[in-house]
Design a protein that fits this description.
Strand content: under 5%
Shape: elongated
Distance between the termini: 93 Å
Largest sheet: none
Structural class: mainly alpha
Length: 269
């Protein structure tokens, strides 16, 4: 019975380490978002009809889908990262217990390029950080530009005609495309975060190892973080491209609506 209790306690502790605070908060957000999305769909379906119902469903579905995708993707990545970190810690701990301190001289002979390769660790984080900040700044600037453009376009159309037809399908389609472009740009800014080295991890796990082993492990994790950061930056790039395409579609639709309103104003006069 005592052995079973100890094993159960070990498994519970393992799950607690594997499911971090980030995973728990993501699960809570998903649990709240699901009923809210269901209520929104029911409200749209019962309170609207025709073009307005179609427009609102088309505008709401991509947003809900993207939020769910990013949340579950974040849960999977956080769980995998915590599991890999926990496995690495257990393996290193068991290795230290069995073998004691490793021989630094033997490590240097087996991996002669360790010190030279370790010189890439810090620059790799600097490269990714600068690229991440550039991609994030572009999305922020484009989101501000979309908002300013939409407001300016409405003011311009209002100056052409005194009574623009805001119920026109062209206007609703343009508004939906521009709103989606703005949402994609904002979500692109929020999705993903850059991964950096944590000094606390070094303090907790690496103070008792040989320098060569420390440099090799840091080089390994710098490579893992580099790949993760590259995926985040690539996702921001794709979000920016999608926002640009939606903005172009919205601009074209808004142009058609403006020309139709201008033609109506000229014909009416």
């Amino acid at each position: 019975m005592k052995m079973i209790h100890e094993r159960l306690h070990t498994q519970v502790g393992y799950l607690q380490k594997m499911w971090s605070v980030d995973v728990v908060f993501r699960l809570i957000r998903v649990a709240f978002a699901i009923p809210l999305a269901a209520v929104a769909y029911i409200q749209i379906w019962t309170e609207t009809e025709g073009f307005m119902r179609t427009f609102m469903l088309v505008a709401l579905t991509p947003w809900i889908t993207s939020v769910a995708y990013f949340e579950f993707k974040g849960i999977r990545k956080s769980t995998q990262r915590n599991l890999a970190r926990l496995t690495n810690t257990d393996a290193k701990g068991s290795g230290n217990k069995e073998n004691g301190n490793r021989d630094g001289a033997l490590d240097s002979q087996a991996y002669p390029a360790t010190e030279a390769a370790y010189s890439l660790v810090l620059p790799s984080y600097q490269w990714m950080l600068s690229r991440y900040e550039a991609a994030d700044s572009r999305l922020q600037a484009f989101a501000a530009f979309i908002s300013a453009f939409g407001f300016a376009a409405l003011v311009f159309i209002r100056s052409i005609t005194d009574s623009p037809d805001y119920g026109s399908p062209w206007f609703f389609s343009a508004l939906g495309a521009l709103s989606l472009a703005l949402m994609v740009a904002l979500v692109g800014r929020l999705r993903g975060s850059i991964t950096l080295a944590n000094p606390m991890t070094v303090w907790e796990e690496y103070l008792d190892v040989q320098p060569d082993e420390f440099m090799r492990d840091q080089l390994h994790w710098a490579g893992v973080h580099f790949n993760n950061n590259q995926q985040v930056i690539r996702a921001k790039f794709y979000s920016g491209m999608a926002a640009v395409l939606l903005f172009l579609v919205g601009t074209a639709l808004l142009t058609v609506w403006g020309l139709s309103e201008a033609a109506g104003a000229v014909g009416g006069s």
